[in-house]
TrEMBL record, chain B:
Coiled coil: none annotated. It comes from Aeribacillus pallidus. This is Iron ABC transporter. It comes from the Bacteria. GO terms for biological process: response to zinc ion; transmembrane transport. It is found in: Cell membrane. GO terms for cellular component: ATP-binding cassette (ABC) transporter complex.
TrEMBL record, chain C:
InterPro entries: AAA+_ATPase, ABC_transporter-like_ATP-bd, ABC_transporter-like_CS, Metal_Ion_Import_ABC, P-loop_NTPase. Keywords: ATP-binding, Nucleotide-binding, Transport. This is Manganese ABC transporter ATP-binding protein. The keyword Transport applies. Gene3D superfamilies: P-loop containing nucleotide triphosphate hydrolases. Pfam families: ABC_tran (PF00005). PANTHER family: IRON TRANSPORT SYSTEM ATP-BINDING PROTEIN HI_0361-RELATED (PTHR42734:SF5), METAL TRANSPORT SYSTEM ATP-BINDING PROTEIN TM_0124-RELATED (PTHR42734). One of its GO terms (molecular function) is ATP hydrolysis activity.
Length: 306, 295, 253
């Protein structure tokens, strides 16, 4: 079984999904505090038509061009959501659900056309739906690495700006931070994170890697900085471990295994996390009940005196 | 129109109608993303039903779907009660359950009868081949019969408890103080969403069913201020999208379910632009007028 | 001595891990018009919700007319905070008022013309007859609150709980609502109102419940609503109180 690890291509793939996991874990914290967890899900689905159109235009699979296509399409999706929200009484989650499913539908329409015209050759595009890390080649890995590192760098370099932007946008504005720019940058790196992961995890499950590690990290710390680091660690671990497990079976999809590892880490955190973990909370509740009882008996006693 | 095409259109219209009706309450109860979650997790329900019974029959699928839908809602509620943001909770639950479903298919169930691709994209073209015979009506595709049954159930439950659906959607606190079992109705509603989803699976697949559920209702929401009219319009838009989707697919020669999802988008876009009250153009003109007046 | 319509004993409740209410005890007599007053976070809304079983209680018991809640549900009316519902809901004012009758109409039945008539009369009573067909998002804040009050009115309950009905409404609405509340009282009904404006307490309510996570004082406004008790309720910060009386003017004068 460990022979798989010795295969150099697997090593590269493993490394790239790990870096992606780290980027997603990092970015996920920003999305969590912007309260846009499901936005990543909508954007991932919205990226599909872009991927297919890029393929249609180019006639071959080139990850970099597809990433550009995916980004454009996801950004269009994001602006549609914004537009619908701001100019009608339709709520944000409805707008997200619509964009998600309609763009995905369009993507499937295009994908069917591609599969038909390329003469039954699946052209490897189907792997964008569930993710097939094994189908990645060296150049894909390089592209992924560079972009993932760029995302991580952007978050860490401007760490304190992100912090005030997320916690108190009005205050950030007062400090001379341009909210328009920060919003733009936020959407750009969110979309980048999503699209680089599409090939490894697939459009349907990619949101998991942005959501789960950050929520898990909350159970271990109260500090934003540590939360990002822990979330990145969880994301990286899920990426690497999930890819490794999926390499054990033939034709096993990568995405679902990565998600399973991530949520296993989540449930561990949920139960045993030191901040608000179930175990800790249970003990706190017991204390609380005792306190209430003490209060009550005290009150009764004083009444008795009166 | 061929016999084959007719069944496809009938089936698609049934999907559009039942999804359109359910969708109205979905968006009014702010549960659009919950529908997205359920449409994914229902896959796990079907897989488990298949593993236990080793066959894919309508009733097993329905039971599996209800189970998965309720489990999803329960888990989301549980996580939310533990302080996890609502949409993060939805994200965690549905991706995990969906991943388990996909892995089960890829490993233990095998590709024999269950195909993820099929479940996600739907394969409405195959529907007319798989028939059963019903008394009085004769030969009917199984999926169509199932959909008709589900539509009947949905229609019955929505109409019979119309005022209760209305009040629990608008003001659950008042409803509870009047003695209406708000929580029970919430779970009944989730069951309706689950069975509608699973019955539509064959036709449009997991993700496109979300389009059918949410978009016609959101479009109808732009045209009217009355709940009853919204229901009628939403059902109508669902049927229009389904039929239009079929013809678009035939024209471009592509996936029917994808085209139907796309067609719901077209219906919405038209509503979004041209609705007299809430449409973008009307709004723009109104804004322009006031600016002129005040300016 | 009037009949005790509400008996609360040793009630406590928590939100997440914070205890919001503890050791709440009081008895309300029939025909009282009670103002529930206390600082932000004192647990005023939670108290109403816990009494009405909309929020779980940790300890304690609540009795209405000497009976548990589910036995007398029909005699109790509740007016939630205006902000607790989505006013974009596709429905009109008359329909919202009719909702107050759903408990009486019963399962599987539609509201009849008689029910609509009743609802319309309630709207009329609050000066809202012209707005019966209006989509509810097109009503002003004060008009929305009147719709809610009309809805409570048609319930024809004996005991009402109202969560901040006077928050953010115009002077005319405030007057209309207070007239209605006094009429209800005159009919022998009991009304409990969460209230935020200290200036108007003495004019509006004959009883007052000073609340800050527990009952500080409960009784007749004339006896209880003293500077000392208020400062105990608001954490002893009298200076804050003085500022309040400078800034807040009685909107009705």
């Amino acid at each position: 079984m460990f022979t798989i690890l010795l295969n150099s291509n697997t090593q590269w793939v493993l490394f790239s999904t790990m870096i992606f996991g780290i980027a997603a874990g990092t970015m996920g914290c920003l999305a969590y505090w912007k309260r846009q967890s499901l936005m990543s899900d909508a954007l991932a689905h919205a990226a599909l038509p872009g991927v297919v159109i890029a393929f249609l235009l180019l006639g071959e699979k080139n990850l970099f061009v597809m990433i550009i296509g995916a980004s454009i399409s996801a950004l269009i999706g994001a602006s549609f959501i914004q537009w619908i929200r701001s100019s009608t009484r339709i709520s944000a989650d409805t707008a997200m659900g619509m964009v998600l499913s309609i763009f995905f539908g369009l993507g499937i329409m295009l994908l069917t056309v591609v599969n038909r015209t390329s003469g039954g050759n699946q052209s490897g595009l189907d792997s964008f739906i569930f993710g097939q890390a094994a189908s990645m080649v060296r150049s894909d890995v390089t592209t992924m690495l560079i972009l993932a590192l760029a995302v991580i760098l952007i978050v860490f370099v401007a760490f304190k700006e992100w912090k005030i932007y997320l916690f108190d946008p009005e205050f950030a504005k007062g400090l001379g931070l341009s909210l328009k720019w920060m919003n733009g940058l936020y959407t750009t790196i969110l979309v980048t994170t999503i699209v680089i992961g599409i090939q490894a995890v697939g459009v349907i499950l990619i949101a998991a890697l942005l959501i789960i590690p950050s929520v898990s990290a909350r159970y271990w710390t109260q500090s934003f900085q540590r939360m990002i680091i822990i979330s990145a660690l969880f994301g990286g671990a899920a990426g690497a471990l999930g890819t490794f497990i999926s390499a054990l079976g033939r034709g096993w999809p990568t995405g679902p295994f990565i998600v399973i590892v991530a949520s296993a880490l989540f449930f561990l955190s949920l139960f045993f996390g030191k901040e608000k973990g179930i175990l800790v909370k249970y003990l706190q509740l017991k204390m609380q009940k005792r306190l209430v009882n003490i209060h009550t008996s005290k009150a009764l006693r004083t009444k008795g005196v009166e | 129109m061929t016999y084959h095409a007719m069944w496809i259109i009938v089936t698609a219209s049934l999907v559009g109608l039942s999804c359109g009706l359910i969708g109205v309450f979905l968006i009014l109860r702010k549960m659009a993303m919950m529908a997205d979650a359920i449409s994914h997790t229902v896959l796990l329900g079907i897989v488990i039903a298949f593993i236990i019974t080793r066959e894919l029959s309508g009733t097993h699928m329905l039971i599996g779907a209800i189970f998965a839908g309720l489990l999803t809602a329960f888990l989301v509620q549980w996580l939310h009660s533990l302080d996890v943001q609502q949409d993060a909770a939805i994200g965690i639950v549905f991706t995990t359950m969906f991943a388990i479903g996909v892995i089960l298919i890829a490993t233990s169930v095998g590709n024999a009868h269950l195909d993820v691709q099929h479940a996600l994209m739907g394969e409405i073209t195959f529907i007319p081949w798989n028939k059963m015979s019903l008394p009085l009506i004769g030969e009917v595709p199984k999926a169509t019969a199932l959909l008709a049954l589900v539509l009947f159930v949905v229609l019955f439950v929505l109409v019979a408890f119309y005022k209760e659906w209305k009040i629990t959607s608008f003001d659950p606190a008042l409803a509870a103080s009047l003695g209406i079992p708000v929580l029970l109705m919430h779970y009944v509603f989730l069951c309706l969403v689950s069975i509608t989803t699973v019955a539509s699976f064959d036709a449009v697949g997991a993700i496109m069913v979300v389009a059918m559920l949410i978009t016609p209702a959101a479009s109808a929401y732009l045209w009217t201020d009355r709940l009853s009219i919204m229901l009628v319009l939403s059902g109508l838009f669902g049927v229009i999208s389904a039929v239009a989707g079929y013809y678009i697919a035939a024209w471009v020669d592509t996936s029917i379910s994808g085209s139907m999802a796309f067609a719901t988008g077209l219906v919405f876009f038209i509503s979004f632009l041209f609705s007299p009250k809430h449409g973008w153009i009307a709004r723009y003109l109104r804004l322009h007028k006031t600016v002129k007046k005040t300016g | 001595m009037a009949e005790a319509v509400l008996q609360v004993e040793n009630l406590s409740a928590s939100y997440r891990k914070n205890t919001v209410l503890f050791d709440v005890n009081f008895v309300v007599q029939a025909g009282s018009l009670v103002g529930i007053v206390g600082p932000n976070g004192a647990g005023k809304s939670t108290l109403l919700k816990t009494i009405l079983n909309l929020h779980p209680s940790l300890t304690g018991s609540v009795k209405f007319f000497g009976l548990p809640f589910n036995k007398v549900q029909k005699r109790i009316g509740y007016v939630p905070q205006r902000g607790s519902v989505d006013w974009d809901f596709p429905t009109n004012a008359l329909d919202v008022v009719t909702m107050g009758l759903y408990g009486q109409i019963g399962w599987l039945k539609r509201p009849s013309r008689l029910h609509k008539q009743k609802a319309f009369e309630a709207l009329e009573k609050l000066g809202m007859a012209d707005y019966a067909d209006r989509q509810i998002s097109q009503l002003s804040g004060g008009q929305q609150q009147r719709v809610f009050l009309a809805r409570a009115l048609v319930q024809n309950a004996d005991l009402y709980f109202m969560d901040e009905p006077l928050a953010g409404v115009d002077a005319a609405t405030e007057r209309a609502i207070m007239t209605l509340l006094k009429e209800l009282k005159a009919l022998g009904k009991t009304v409990m109102v969460v209230h935020h404006d200290l200036q108007t307490v003495e004019d509006y309510f004959d009883h007052v419940l000073l609340l800050n996570r527990t009952v500080i004082q409960y009784g007749k406004t004339k006896q209880i609503f003293t500077r000392e008790n208020i400062s105990r309720t608001y954490g002893g910060d009298l200076r804050w109180l003085r500022e309040e009386s400078l800034h807040v003017h009685n909107p009705i004068k």
